[in-house]
Design a protein that fits this description.
Elements lengths: L1 H21 L3 H13 L1 H26 L6
Helix pairs in contact: 1-2, 1-3, 2-3
Length: about 70
């Protein structure tokens, strides 16, 4: 389901960035719930993409603390 993955990843990135920008991590959960109301499949893809983005952010923060590249 490449289309679902593409939509989920794009929406997750936009939501993740907006939540970081606004300092409102609950925005991610709100979007997830909204997706689940109409498309559990899209919600699952979104949640997976969010987990990847959060893991990447934590890894970059760790690298930055260790003096390594954060990009």
């Amino acid at each position: 389901m490449a289309f679902v993955d593409t939509v989920a990843e794009r929406l997750a990135q936009e939501t993740f960035d907006r939540a970081e920008e606004l300092g409102t991590p609950d925005l991610i959960e709100q979007v997830s719930r909204t997706l689940g109301e109409s498309s559990p499949t899209l919600q699952e893809g979104f949640n997976t993409a969010i987990r990847y983005l959060r893991a990447e952010a934590r890894a970059k923060a760790l690298l930055a603390q260790q003096g390594g590249p954060a990009a």
